[in-house]
Structure formats: C-alpha cells, structure tokens
Amino acid sequence: xxxxxxxxxxxxxxxxxxxxxxxxxxxxxxxxxxxxxxxxxxxxxxxxxxxxxxxxxxxxxxxxxxxxxxxxxxxxxxxxxxxxxxxxxxxxxxxxxxxxxxxxxxxxxxxxxxxxxxxxxxxxxxxxxxxxxxxxxxxxxxxxxxxxxxxxxxxxxxxxxxxxxxxxxxxxxxxxxxxxxxxxxxxxxxxxxxxxxxxxxxxxxxxxxxxxxxxxxxxxxxxxxxxxxxxxxxxxxxxxxxxxxxxxxxxxxxxxxxxxxxxxxxxxxxxxxxxxxxxxxxxxxxxxxxxxxxxxxxxxxxxxxxxxxxxxxxxxxxxxxxxxxxxxxxxxxxxxxxxxxxxxxxxxxxxxxxxxxxxxxxxxxxxxxxxxxxxxxxxxxxxxxxxxxxxxxxxxxx
Amino acid sequence: xxxxxxxxxxxxxxxxxxxxxxxxxxxxxxxxxxxxxxxxxxxxxxxxxxxxxxxxxxxxxxxxxxxxxxxxxxxxxxxxxxxxxxxxxxxxxxxxxxxxxxxxxxxxxxxxxxxxxxxxxxxxxxxxxxxxxxxxxxxxxxxxxxxxxxxxxxxxxxxxxxxxxxxxxxxxxxxxxxxxxxxxxxxxxxxxxxxxxxxxxxxxxxxxxxxxxxxxxxxxxxxxxxxxxxxxxxxxxxxxxxxxxxxxxxxxxxxxxxxxxxxxxxxxxxxxxxxxxxxxxxxxxxxxxxxxxxxxxxxxxxxxxxxxxxxxxxxxxxxxxxxxxxxxxxxxxxxxxxxxxxxxxxxxxxxxxxxxxxxxxxxxxxxxxxxxxxxxxxxxxxxxxxxxxxxxxxxxxx
Lengths: 398, 398
Known about the structure:
The structure is a homodimer of 398-residue chains.
Chain A: H1 3-16, E1 33-41, E2 47-58, E3 68-72, E4 99-100, E5 105-106, E6 111-115, E7 136-137, E8 142-143, H2 153-167, E9 172-178, H3 180-191, E10 198-202, H4 211-225, H5 243-256, H6 260-267, H7 287-300, H8 305-316, H9 326-329, E11 336-339, H10 350-362, E12 367-369, H11 380-383, H12 389-396
Parallel strand pairs in A: 3-6, 3-9, 4-5, 9-10, 10-11, 11-12
Antiparallel strand pairs in A: 1-2, 2-6, 7-8
Helix pairs in contact in A: 1-7, 2-3, 4-5, 4-8, 5-7
C-alpha cells in the first residue's frame, strides 16, 4: 500500500470505520458514468440547465426492467456504493459488504443503481459528478455560488427517476439508502408509488426533518457561515477558500455520527502526543481531537463549502411528499417498508423509525423494523450493515 | 413585567426551560457574597493570586457545623441556585424548585452553599464573581487572557473546600450538582472522603470525561477558536470581541442540552417568519434556528469567550481523583451516592451513571440510581429536578 493509500484508508476509517477492505467481491471493476439533463425544473420552481450527476450500476437489468434497486447515498457520500475502480483502490464502495454476487443486494439477481446527488458534498472529488453551486452557470460562465437554486430531497429523487427511466427501469424491487439516503428512499415511495415495490430506509431520519434535526443541521453549517473566507459563498476565484470552516463543519458531522463506544475504543483518553499533558499547555490536546481534526482537514480538500450548505438546507426542508403533514405525505405510499436504525445511533434516533413504522402501519402499509446492533453510533448503518444482511435478503423475498 | 424582564425570561426559557416563576419560596431575598483567597496553587502547580469567587447560602449552619449541603453548578450556570435577589427578578435561581423551606433541600434543616466556579462562564454577568482569564493579573495589571493557569474540576472543589472551611462547615450532609456540577460532586467525595456523607450527582458525566465527551466539548470550543476576533485570546482591549464565535459555541451547548421532544413542542417545523419559506431564499430560516440564535446573542453578552475555553478544558481533563484510572480514583470514596440522570439526556447519557453506580457498588459503596422522566433532554436535570424530589428527600434521610 502506498503512503497516499494509507492516508486515504486512515481518513476513510475515521469517517466510515474499518470496513472490510478484503471483501471486494464484485466481478471486475466498476466505473462512474454520467447522466445529463439539458434542463431540470426544481420543486422550488427554478430551472437548472445542463444538469449532470454521476452514477454507477452493478448487475444487469432484466428484459422486463423490474429487477432494479436504487441506492441513495448519505450526506457525505456519493454513488460509489460497491466495488473498486481499480485493483489498487484502498477501499471498495461503502456498502460493498451487502452489494455483490450472493450478497443481500445480489448482483446476479438485481440491477443496482447508485447515483451522485445534486449538490453532492464531494464537488472536488474527481470521482464525483454533480451539479451545484460550484458548477458553472451556463448563463454567466461563472460558478453559481449561492445563486444556485435551493434544492430538496424531492429534487434528488426526481433526477434519479429520470436516470432510471433512461436506463429502462420499469419497476424498482427496492429503494434503499442510509441517513440522507433514507429520506430519498421514503420520498421515492411517496412520489412514485406504482414504481416502488419495497423501501429499505437505513439509519433513517423518519418521515420529516423535525425541529431538532433542523437545528442540528444548522449547527453543522454554522462554522462555514462564520468563516470569513466563505464570503457569502463567493470564494471560487479567491486564493483563500473557507477550508477551516468546512473542516470544522465536517468535525461536527463526524462526532454526531459516532458514539461513546467507538470513541473510547479508538482513542480512549490518550493525549495526542505522549508526555504532552493538556493540563500543562494550551498547545497540548487529546488524541480524539487531533484524530478527528486531521481527518477533516483531508476530507475538506475534496468537498465544497457551499455544497455543504445546500445539503443542509435540503435536509432541513424535508417532509415526505412535501406535504402539509407526514400523515398526508405518506398517503400515496404502496411499498412494503423495512426500517433499519442502528441501536446506538445518537443522530437519527431509533425512535424516528419507530414512529414512521407506526404511522405507515396505521394507514395499512406493511412496515417492519429491525435494528443494527452495535456501539458505533449512526455510522453503524454503513460499517455494520452486513449484520442485518439476512433480514434484508428475507425482506426482498417477501 | 418590564420589556427587559420579558427578554430575560425568554432567554432563560431557551436555556433552562420554563421553570415555575411563581414558586419562589425562600424566606426573604438572597444575596451574592464574595470569598477571597490571597493565593491559591492549582493542581497543575501554578499560583493564582487574589482569587475571588462568589457564593450564596440558604438556611443556617448548626452549632456542630454538620448540616451543610454544597451545590456545584453546571457549565453555563453560577451560584444563583435558589431565591431571588429582588422581588422583581424575572426568575429565581435554577434549582429553586428543590431548595427552600419544606423542599427536598430544606432550608429549615440544612445550610446550603452554592459557589461560582473559577473561570465561570458569566464573567460579564454583574451577579457573578469569578477569577479567570478575564481577570486582571496583579503582576501585570492586565487581563490574564490565555496566560491564566489551566484549571481543573479538582481546583474548583479545592476552592469550595476553602470556602466551606471559612464558613465553619465540618461535615457536608451532601454534595450535589448538575452536569459539570456532578463532576465536582464526585470529586468532593474522592478528595475529602471524611467530610462528605452523601453525593447526589445529577445529569451526571460519570467518573471521567471519556473520549466522546472530550470531542463533544471540543466541538463546543471550535467556533470561538476560529473567530478572528478571538485573536489567541487577546481581545480585552479590542473594540471587536469574539462574540460571534461565542454565540455559536453557546448554540452548540444548547442543542446538545436538548432533545427532539422539547424542540418539537417549542418550535415544530415552523418558519421564523410566516410566509417566508426557507425553500425560496437563503435569508429565510426556521423558527428553531432563529430562536436559539437569538438566545445565544443575548447570552453571549454576559459571557466570556476565554472563560468558555477554560471550562471546556477543565471538563475534558476530568477523571475522578485525577488518578490513573477511575477504579483507582474512586477508592477513597466513603459517601453514599445517588446518581440522577435524565431519561432523555443525549449529552450525558444515563449509561454513564449506570457505569459509575456499578463501579462504586463493586468496591462496596452504597450507590443508588434514579432517572428523571421526561423528554426535555439534558436540561431536564435543571427544569424537571422536582420530579425526583421525594427520592432526594428519602436519600438524605438514609
């Protein structure tokens, strides 16, 4: 492993834990493709020209076009859900443990689609294709910055629908996604009820962003907003980017996605440098502070601050079906549902899933609930998803 | 109620909830007094000259000096635990619901002492007396800023001990405190085991700050550290203070101290201004975002950014007895213990208390556990403490 690969693996392990790097099992390598729409009208009534998002597919669409599964990614994720781009990649896609031949999302049976969202966080990641504030506005020849239309989870889903149509998909055997992906998942069922047979929201946010989640997301955004280099979003032509704010925003995301068990196992109360007691000097600090900061510095390099803000707003605005109430929003849903929270999740609490399942059952839907056991926190929905692989497999056969 | 009182009550209600303003019941009014030490040597081996902290007492010390109860305050709190300074005060002290004649901390029976901590957050609050980075260093005639010695929870307790001695206290029937006050509470039992008969840690942090809590506290501090006006802590003679960073730090504290139930009841998904949909414009926002920001702006005016950082470090450094392990740290403890977490606390989790109780029992101590029911989050330890009033009363009689 090269030093750069080691660094990438370290960063990856901070954000996603040590998921089995050895378990790459897709036949051959995967590749990013690009889906384009000449023009797209947002839920908010604005037009985005030359919209582009990246996507990956695993497996083969059958003749009837009804064996597809759509995978929607989390806040800091992208469409690289499984496999490797090249053999030397430090890690496969984030859900490689459940996507592949013979795995719960069996690529010998299903045609799996994963797409980059609009305003994807990794605007500077060479393997991400997205359209957002960092993109060039064709009308001005300059980056949109904060003039890019505010977009919603509903917009993400409508773009995915256009992609699915283009690929010839007639039915989705399932839509799934973790965290922010779970919001897209339930939205799919509400917006296109005749196309979606099952939904599998993982570490779910429930059916809307409640007041608490709205404020938590604002706390994520605040470091960017107060970085002088953010400059109202106009930094694309400046030498100084709002990297520090972005780093701090990423640190809040990280701690919100973890919990005491993981923190204690990984860092304990160790100092960042042996012999340098934080009691003695302000320069001295703790291992966890240094570790999470170091990961955020690397991570910020491939992310974009304005994209972060747009993602925050999209999450804050979410209510299923964009309706006046969740009860109204879920009315169209026909899909069977399996909600999969993580037991130790302190960000998107298991109680959000319990409430969603109860509401769906109340209106007569088939809705099930299973927890991912563990003490890793929210991120268990990525790192430990294979623990509920059998339940996913069984649900797909119901 | 004057407009200013209304504003204070609003701010108070954001941070502490709507605690019964009508239930003031101490005989007469309370007053802040000042305790001074000409010189104090810190755990870290540094000297603080002319140390001053404020304190309040409720009730009367008996002739044997053994009916005292020490009340240690939380991160953003101070020694105003009960009563009012004047009849027109918008609200009484934060635990007025359990301190007073006939209440669990019965002022007809006990002599209750509450003191401002060192490096108290409210350095600019006229009712707080504290010594910290905002204080004048007698050797230079200028504020210490970040040259003030790093202090620990142990230091807070040693200063309280000196105060108790001065007041003639021989035995503490109990030491109690919420949140950061709970750390001081267990430290009292470890440091002065022959003086402390009972400890009642409320919304407790357990026996040490674990890695997760260390990082959470760092996330609180980060907005201050990245505010250009913080300027390495040297802002006392500057026109521009790091108010924005301090406000954002306070916002993180607030959301960490709350939970979904409270947020939903108080703000729901309302917009901050009717008709101004956050989908339409970046200037539009949600009621909870505006409400918590407004409270933090007011709150920051009486707080000090450097003091905030010193409190963060004191919390991060905490392990009971300043020992090599919690097992070693609790060895001296003789006091009976009653740990009182809040069921819905998402900051200092009930599991921290369970672990502490288990460790104390393991070494043969009498240790009990009772939860404050509710859905307000961490802050239930302040607002809803009266719910476990009977259990506190019974414990004091055991």
